[in-house]
Amino acid sequence: MSTQINVRIWLDPVCPFSWNTARWLDAVAPQAGARIDWQLMNLAVLNEGRELPQEQHARLRDSQQIGRLMAGVQRDLGQPGLHAAYFTFGRLYFDESLPVGTELADGVLAAVAPLRTTSESLSDTSLDAAVRSSHEAGQRALGDVGGSPLLQVRGRTFFGPVLTAVPVQDSARQLFDAVVGLAGVPEFAQLQRPRAAH
Q1: Do residues 40 and 22 touch, judged by C-beta distance below 8 A?
Q2: What distance in Å separates the CA atoms of residue 180 and residue 138, rounded to the nearest whole number?
Q3: What is the side-by-side order of every strand in the sheet holding 5-11?
Q4: Long-range contacts of 54-60 (CB under 8 A, 24+ apart)
Q5: Cα dihedral sign, 89-93-99-103
Q6: Cα Dmax for the chain
Q7: What are the tens digits of pLDDT across the range 145-161?
């Protein structure tokens, strides 16, 4: 009899590598018997106070605004709403290159029909506390400062896996089993290789 594997992922919706990881995890979860708990992290919070190149500022502004939108949906509809909103956002933002703004927000909200959240949440600073709280919970679980995504399996939290594309067929399950296996080895700390440019 198989035992359900509980997995928690913290991700920033605007991170392209996390979009790959999320799609991999969402696809492999049913065949692996995994239950996924989706949580927000935030690159804008992560990079507070840092001197960054000018070209990164737009991505961090997107991160802040979409973090608010997702926090509003999660407040209204919980995990199912956040999951649906994130995957709708990813298709619009990454696959269709729709910029962050009212049109994108309305497209996301139309897919989930939240109770209170509107496109005005993009600029609603009252939602920042919820985003920060979720982000900081992920950093505490990691026990260090880590980027997006963070993955927790069997009570152990890792930065990654960072994916340059979504693994297909058998590779997707092999990667999941490898991550679960590594989580079961208390002595394991890190495994890394150079990644191709995205």
Answers
A1: no
A2: 18
A3: 34-40, 5-11, 150-153, 156-159
A4: 59/14
A5: negative
A6: 53
A7: 989 999 999 889 999 89
Which of 58, 49, 50, 84 has the alpha carbon at shortest distance from 69?
84
> Residue 97: which region, alpha, beta or left (left: phi > 0; alpha: psi -120 to 50)?
left
What is the residue type of 17? Answer: F
The residue written with tokens 């035992």 in the block is 3
Residue 89 contacts residue 104 (beta carbons within 8 Å):
yes
Closest CA to 64 of 110, 129, 115: 129
What's the predicted TM-score (pTM) here? 0.91
* Rounded Cα distance, 106 and 112, in Å: 10
Instruction: Please name the residue that has the structure tokens 């992920």.
Output: 138
66 neighbors 89 (Cβ within 8 angstroms):
yes
At 180-191, the pLDDT tens digits run 999 988 888 888
- Angstrom distance (rounded) from CA 163 to CA 92: 20
Question: Distances in Å between the alpha carbon of 175 and those of 1, 13, 25, 167?
Answer: 22, 22, 10, 8
